[in-house]
Design goal:
alpha+beta; Alpha-Beta Plaits; four-stranded antiparallel β-sheet; binds 2'-deoxyadenosine-5'-diphosphate; binds magnesium ion
């Protein structure tokens, strides 16, 4: 089986509470991406500070940590060629007011602090975030029957 790129995607507390997990998953499944790991969990303050370490010191940081630890999230790993960039495009820009229609944030959210999804912004972030949230044994291997219709 061909090794394809992986990304970390998380439905944030607002997305879970609004019942948007299925909507997000459907978009990625319909696109042709492969789901290889998924779990619902409540993020600890310690994990939150490691995950969002790059934002420490910014004015929105404390609120961001409080929000991301406030209720369960659904953490996932998705696979596909160029999946990191593709998922970022499908998510839309950070501010939902500016996110294009057709994107998750453009279609499903209205406010920066409640933008329903997180997705890795580079292959390096993806590797870091995947190892923060998942053990190797939680990542699954299986064949997508549609793979020959999706790729060369
Ligand atoms: P992204 O989630 O698009 O990668 P980011 O990494 O810059 O965006 O920021 C992480 C999250 O922090 C973002 O999803 C929402 C929140 N955030 C970012 N900038 C903000 C701001 N200026 N005011 C309030 N919240 C902000
Ligand atoms: Mg980011």
């Amino acid at each position: 089986m061909k090794e394809r790129e992986r990304t970390f995607l998380m439905v944030k507390p607002d997305g879970v509470q609004r019942g948007l997990v299925g909507n997000v998953v459907s978009r990625l499944e319909n696109k042709g991406l492969k789901l290889v790991a998924m779990k619902m969990m409540q993020i600890s303050p310690e994990l939150a500070s490691r995950h969002y370490g790059e934002h420490q010191g910014k004015p929105f940081y404390d609120g961001l940590i409080e929000f991301i630890t406030s209720a369960p999230v659904v953490a996932m790993i998705w696979e596909g060629d160029n999946v990191v960039e593709m998922v970022r495009t499908m998510m839309g820009v950070t501010d939902p007011r500016k996110a294009s229609p057709g994107t998750m944030r453009g279609d499903l959210a209205v406010f920066m602090g409640k933008n329903i999804v997180h997705g890795s912004d580079s292959t390096e972030s993806a590797a870091r975030e995947i190892s923060l949230f998942f053990d190797q044994k939680e990542i699954n291997t299986y064949q997508l029957p549609s793979e020959s219709c999706l790729y060369d």
